Amino acid sequence: MLSDRMKTALNDQINMEFGASFQYLAMAAYFEAENLLGFANWMHVQAEEENGHAMKFYHYINSRRGRVTLKALSAPKTEWSSPLEAFQDALKHEQKVTASINNLVNLAIQESDHATNSFLQWFVDEQVEEEASVDAVIQDLKRIGDSSQGLFMLDRELAGRQPEAEAEAE
Ligand code: FEO
User: Fold this and answer.
1) Whether residue 94 has its Cβ less than 6 Å from ligand 1
2) Contact at 8 Å (CB) between 47 and 165?
3) How far, CA to CA in Å, does 46 sit from each of 39, 104, 109?
4) Which is the closest atom of ligand 1 to the Cα of 98?
5) How many CA atoms lie within 13 A of 55 on its CB side?
6) What pLDDT sits at residue 91?
7) What's the CA gap between 127 and 7, in Å, rounded?
8) In b/e form, how buried is each residue of 51-61, taking b as 16+ CB within 10 angstroms?
9) How far is 167 from 147, CA to CA, in rounded Å?
10) Domain spanning 4-69+80-164: CATH 3.40.1010.10
11) Which 3 state secondary structure label does DSSP give 35?
12) Ligand 1 atom closest to Cα of residue 50
């Protein structure tokens, strides 16, 4: 059985992951409006991944016979001054998620909840990847600067991002 405290913390994490999905979808809409469809594709794939993260928590709570309680999502930010600003926001958000996952691990250790600690290790590793993949785009955008040709090339590259399951199947 999950403790009440852990149940609440895991439910809060579901909210955070769905919130991230919502935010990335808003970023996809921004890039679509800017006619940067490769960037939009990257954000769509990311939004789907966040949905998947939320559902992992959903199923885990149920598997421990806990009660999933969904909460309202706050409205996402919808406008950015540049692709770089949008990706910098994404990195800030991922760093918040990483801190939240680390807090969950700390709680699991404190409660000697080994099952939850084990479940969370996937997310610990995932967050390293999440931050690195956002940061890689930030570094590319900084290198490109004001070059519209560079932005065009990067947009082409990001159009190739696929959902993880499809990428692994190839
Ligand atoms: Fe599910 Fe990007 O954190």
Assistant:
1) yes
2) no
3) 11, 22, 30
4) 3
5) 7
6) 98
7) 21
8) bebbebbbebb
9) 30
10) no
11) coil
12) 1
CA of 18 to the centre of ligand 1 (A): 9
Q: Name the residue with the closest Cα to ligand 1, atom 1.
A: 50
Cα of 70 vs centre of ligand 1, distance in Å, is 17
> CB pairs under 8 A, 24+ apart, for 110-116?
111/3, 111/5, 111/6, 113/2, 113/3, 113/6, 115/64, 116/2, 116/6, 116/10, 116/60, 116/64
Q: Where are the beta strands (DSSP E) in the chain?
A: none
Q: pLDDT tens per residue, the chain (170 residues)?
A: 899 999 999 999 999 999 999 999 999 999 999 999 999 999 999 999 999 999 999 999 999 999 999 999 999 999 999 999 999 999 999 999 999 999 999 999 999 999 999 999 999 999 999 999 999 999 999 999 999 999 999 999 999 999 987 766 66
Distance of CA 133 to the CA centre of its chain: 11
